[in-house]
Write a structure and sequence with these properties.
heterodimer; A: 289 residues; alpha/beta; D-Maltodextrin-Binding Protein, domain 2; 3 domains; five-stranded mixed β-sheet; 13 strands; flat; B: 213 residues; MetI-like fold; 0% strand; transport (chain A); Iontro_rcpt_C (chain A); Solute-binding_3/MltF_N (chain A); signal (chain A)
């Protein structure tokens, strides 16, 4: 009898604890929600004199950590630096860029929690995402393509439309929608990031990787046994993401992007990062004056 | 709870894979762990050294590395999915800890039990399996309970190799709903759904066995 009482007490105590934890979770989520209603990104940036950008750490050509410096390097990172300088000029402040690593599942949450001010991390503009974040104008033209082993004989995504085929994607990318549309019968396996997807492809865990062509070219440059096939499936450009309802910051970013495109900085960065990539047509990426 | 309603089938299927992986790994690691505990206590030096080497290796290497080894390297020779690779790695990893718990349990049993059994004409194997091991497990139960709870939580390693488990689906939901917070809270509650009954079950078993002593 005594023991039963004790056990009952233990069970109810832990249930109460769980309940408290859940309540706390919702309270915190609610607070974060309230926060974002009142925080103006541009005002915060002016006050702290920094723009904290969320960037990738695992994506060659866009944001890949240099193992020596520990800093991300790539087109996104350089563009972020140039934008910070230009936005600083526009608002009359000396702004410095700082960088925070983000991944697919953390980037939006970090924006909402105001841990970062903007996301420059190969983020495709989609309708669903535009409901929760604000996008700038497109800053990079991209579209999903297919990476396969050279001797696999696979020519297009139709070759993979069967239940015995597995297509590898990176978590939280638009590739999931592309595969669902173009090869609905294939199995889709989401790996943590592009590097893991590449490792899994090499280990034979799938027949192809689907993701943006520019990223695939980055993977090819280190894995010459593989090539990009199948053309571009749908035009899906990247945008710079800010917290929802930030017209001031978005306007500044768009204006800065226009200036960088006009004064040649943008083309110089394209040249720097994509000039040496085989198979990529540079004139499709550069803006025409 | 809109997220749960919207992605219910993903969470449920992930929950199923997590239960499956946990159950398989639990049985496999208990069998392997007991085997290696006995090997460690073998009177033959070589066997004992082998058992010890196994335990030391698998409990001192991160689970993620064992998992990736099976998923990326072994899979080139023997085809296996992420689910299989993750479950095998989880079984091996946990078995090392279980071996230690069982070994401690056996050592806690008075030598006289074994000597008495042998004196009564039982073989070493019979004495071990019928006299010593049942008592040893009784002693080892609190620590085994710990290992089982860790095992269930560690099964989230499957997410790293596309193992379709609860954590994998949770990552997918977090990435596509943009509500990371709620997604992971739901995932956490599902894990509690497994670990809390397991916890109390082990406690109950412990009490029952105390009484029977």
């Amino acid at each position: 009898m005594e023991k039963n009482k004790k056990r009952l007490f233990g069970i109810s105590a832990s249930l109460i604890l769980v309940l408290l934890l859940v309540l706390f979770g919702f309270w915190a989520a609610n607070r974060a929600h309230e926060n974002r209603m009142h925080q103006d990104t541009l005002a915060r940036v002016k006050k702290t004199k920094t723009i904290n950008w969320g960037v990738k750490t695992d994506t060659k050509l866009f944001g890949l950590v240099n193992t020596k410096s520990g800093q991300s390097e790539g087109f996104d990172v350089d563009l972020a630096k140039a934008l910070t300088k230009q936005i600083g000029k526009q608002v009359g402040e000396q702004l410095t860029p700082t960088f925070t690593p983000v991944n697919a599942s953390s980037k939006v949450q970090l924006l909402k929690n105001t841990n970062i001010d903007g996301v420059l991390a190969v983020m495709t503009i989609t309708k669903e995402r535009a409901k929760v974040v604000d996008f700038s104008k497109p800053y990079f033209p991209a579209g999903n393509s297919l990476l396969v082993k050279k001797d696999s004989g696979i020519q297009s995504i139709q070759d993979l439309n069967g239940p015995s085929k597995t297509i590898l994607i990176a978590l939280g990318t638009t590739a999931a929608d592309t595969v669902k549309k173009e090869a609905p019968k294939a199995k889709v396996l989401a790996l943590q990031d592009y590097a893991s997807a590449m490792q899994a492809l090499k280990a034979g865990q799938g027949q192809a990787i689907v993701t943006d062509n520019a990223i695939l070219y980055g993977l090819v440059s280190e894995n010459p046994d593989y090539h990009v096939v199948g053309g571009i499936m749908g035009y899906a450009p990247y945008g710079i993401a800010f917290d929802h309802n930030q017209p001031g910051m978005v306007r500044q970013a768009n204006q800065a992007l226009d200036v960088l495109k006009k004064n040649g900085t943008y083309n110089a960065l394209i040249e720097k990062w994509f000039g040496q990539v085989p198979g990529l047509n540079l004139s499709e990426l550069e803006v025409q004056a | 709870m809109m997220i749960f309603d919207h992605y219910r089938s993903l969470f449920i299927s992930g929950f199923g894979y997590t239960i499956a992986a946990s159950l398989i790994a639990l049985v496999a690691s208990l069998v392997l762990g007991t085997f290696f505990a006995l090997l460690q206590l073998s009177k033959k030096r070589a066997w004992a050294a082998l058992g010890n080497a196994y335990v030391q290796f698998f409990r001192n290497v991160p689970l993620l590395i064992i998992t990736l080894f099976f998923y990326l390297a072994v899979a080139k020779v023997i085809k296996m999915t992420g689910f299989v690779a993750g479950t095998v790695a989880l079984s091996l990893y946990t078995s090392a800890f279980i071996a230690e718990s069982v070994r401690a349990g056996i050592l806690a049993i008075d030598k006289g039990q074994m000597e008495g059994a042998l004196a009564n004409g039982l073989s070493y194997g019979q004495a071990m399996s019928r006299i010593v091991l049942p008592q040893a497990f009784k002693v080892a139960i609190p620590s085994l309970g710990n290992q089982f709870i860790n095992l269930v939580k560690n099964s989230s390693i499957l997410a790293f190799v596309g193992g379709l488990d609860l954590m994998y689906q949770g990552n997918l939901v977090a990435a596509s709903s943009f509500d990371t917070f709620t997604s992971y809270i739901i995932v956490g509650l599902f894990y509690l759904l497994l670990t809390l009954p397991l916890s109390y079950g082990m406690q109950y078993l412990e009490e029952r066995l105390q009484e029977s002593r």
